[in-house]
Design brief:
The chain is an alpha+beta fold. It contains five helices and ten strands. Strands 1, 2, 3, 4, 5, 6, 7, 8, 9 and 10 form a ten-stranded mixed β-sheet that branches. The radius of gyration is 19 Å and the shape is globular.
């Protein structure tokens, strides 16, 4: 047996997230199905980031074990012939037999895109959240700066999520405006359920002027989901970088 790691890109529109679910299409489900057909054995991949329904990725990772003789580097070419067009394996490689993406130290970067204009643009509707309400990107950046460092992010975790600890480290949190688009870029050592989408929704409240940027400190200190802003829609979120240290 050998362990193979896949670097996977996908358009999450129409999928019920990464993780396998009963009676719903998922990224993991498609990978398992197509790998099983290709390698003629039952395959169950282990994903690095369990992205939510509608969330996109450029570089999520997944590992699986196989007895197939096909070289690891060649699997991506054969697998892409079977996968739907909205899922592509950008790289496949053999890794150590005990390698597990969720048990390794890593840094992930997510981007959340907001189309902030008078009217929506149809070609961006699947990859950016639209709002006509004016947003001040400078205020959003000022608020985002309070997230950098090690904090208890319980206020930025969906209620009901079961995790051992809600403490995470954010290495950078940036907000940039490019014409009518605002990009929120967050890099951390791990993220809680809906954490980036809640961060995005909270920063938009600062951008609207609902509260001052420094109020972010109060939200962190509250350790209460109701203290933060709304959960932003999934369409604007994309996993853009996944680095193992």
């Amino acid at each position: 047996m050998k362990r193979i790691m896949l670097t996977v890109a996908y358009d999450g529109t129409g999928y019920s997230g990464f993780q396998v679910q009963d009676n719903a299409p998922t990224i993991e489900g498609e990978l398992n199905r197509c790998l099983g057909e290709l390698l003629q054995e039952e395959i169950k991949v282990i994903g690095g980031s369990r992205t939510d329904a509608g969330v996109h990725a450029l570089c999520n990772v997944a590992v699986f074990d196989t007895a197939a003789r096909m070289p690891g580097a060649k699997i991506s070419y054969a697998l892409n012939q079977r996968l739907p067009e909205n899922i592509r394996v950008r790289k496949s490689q053999e890794v150590a037999s005990d390698f597990h993406p969720r048990h390794c130290e890593s840094r992930k970067t997510y981007e959340y895109r907001i189309l902030n204009a008078e009217f929506p643009i149809p070609t961006k509707r699947l990859y950016a959240y639209f709002t006509y309400v004016p947003l001040n990107a400078d205020r959003m950046q000022e608020a985002a700066a309070y997230l950098v460092g090690e904090h208890d992010f319980k206020s930025f975790c969906s209620a009901g999520s079961q995790v051992e600890s809600t403490i995470r480290t954010i290495y950078s949190a940036e907000v940039q405006r490019k014409d009518d688009e605002i990009i929120i870029r967050v890099t951390g050592n791990g993220f809680l359920y809906n954490m980036v989408r809640i961060i995005a929704g909270t920063l938009m409240e600062a951008g609207k002027g609902t509260w001052e940027p420094e109020y972010m400190m109060n939200i962190l200190a509250a350790k209460d989901r109701s203290a933060a802003g709304p959960t932003a829609p999934a369409c604007g979120l994309m996993l853009t970088r996944y680095l193992f240290l």
